[in-house]
Specification:
eight-stranded mixed β-sheet; 14 strands; globular; 9 helices; about 375 residues
Length: about 375
Amino acid sequence: MSGRGQKQQPARQGATAPVLDPLAGVRTAADPATDVYLTGTVFLDIILTGLDSAPVRGTESWARGMGSSPGGVANMATALARLGLRTSLAAAFGDDMYGEYCWDVLSHGEGIDLTYSRTVPGWHSPVTVSMAYEGERTMVSHGHEAPPPETAFDGGHAPGCPPPSRACVASLVPGRPEAWLSCAAARGSRIFADVGWDDTGRWDPADLDGLAHCEAFLPNAEEAMRYTRTSDPRAAARKLAERVPLAVVTMGSEGACAVDGRTGESAEVPAIAVEALDPTGAGDVFVAGFVTGTLAAWPLADRLAFAGLTAALSVQEFGGSLAAPGWSEIVTWWRRIRDGRTPDTAALRDRYAFLDAVLPAPGRCTPPARAVPTIGFRRPA
């Protein structure tokens, strides 16, 4: 088993530095070097788009578009880094070409700190094929669980405590306690959690015991309603706010709502209507946008609006991680809305007026990398 030294590169080597530090106004000399720490599985995503319908058994379907990019936890790590947060990822990488590609894209291309990641000899990278059609997606994945690290230093926090950071993002899994959450919270990290679909169908509220260490919980509407035994996402948010300081529920085409259990404040923001190319990773991008606004101490409604905007921009591109917007896309969108004079832009101009005090000058923005059909071309000598 190989540790972090094999391929480790300094953070942001070769990467385009974000044109905006959203936390510049709140940073102090005593702050940890890492803004957000997260851990999980990195997949090589192969995304097929432009399908007219779901594949039919016994037939061959041709997709009009295809993209490849790192996926899994890389979706959220990339979204955070593109918004200017100093992001550290602990993950296992295969020593195959897929693993090398994902490592290079995340470390060199996106400037994500992989100090706590590791390369595992003989372990092949997990792969997901995602098919997007009719605004939805179907995924088929293959992979095996990576061997556990030999030590806590070799590839992540397990079984100990993650490095000091402003925040951590955790994905709660039914039946799998995340013991590191208590240690991270005790160190002062603000914990943001989401949750996956419960394949067992139990939807046992006890599986959310990790929320005791969390500041915010961000499930989708169906997950929130099932765990709270409610029939309305807003009621579910209020119920969840009894267990976690801040409950945020995404509601798809209806937008998102949030309840702050500490102050009683609530907020709801409608979704931005866009033509979706590929919804892969949109939920991760939403979380990244909300984390950014929270760490920057924005008002609750502005955080919800910004998270919804970043998610809406992401679904107009191929893939999960490399579909995440950078500040260039946000600036372009806001200039179009701010300068527009149609009835459909009036409400958006009012809702997103806070961006005028946040965004960098347009000339400083460079569009980020996007997913391509293959994992790399051989360059001429």
